[in-house]
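If you are new to this repository, start here. Below is one unmodified record pulled from the training split, so you can see the exact layout before writing a loader.
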Amino acid sequence: MTEEKVMQNNTEIDVKKAQMILKKIIVKENNNIKRKDKNDGEMVKMIQKLIEEEVKCY
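And here is the target side for that same chain:
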């Protein structure tokens, strides 16, 4: 299995990992739209935390 990576602004990006993060964000946004649990600021913090956790695991 080959890992697809691209360079963007001198940063190497793992495409598979980026797609996984994006899917998680979309699911969380859709759930929040339906339930209106969090305001925009809370969603931003949650998304930042999700990204930070994924980057640390990498």
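Two things worth knowing about this chain: The radius of gyration is 14 Å. The first strand starts at residue 5 and ends at 8.
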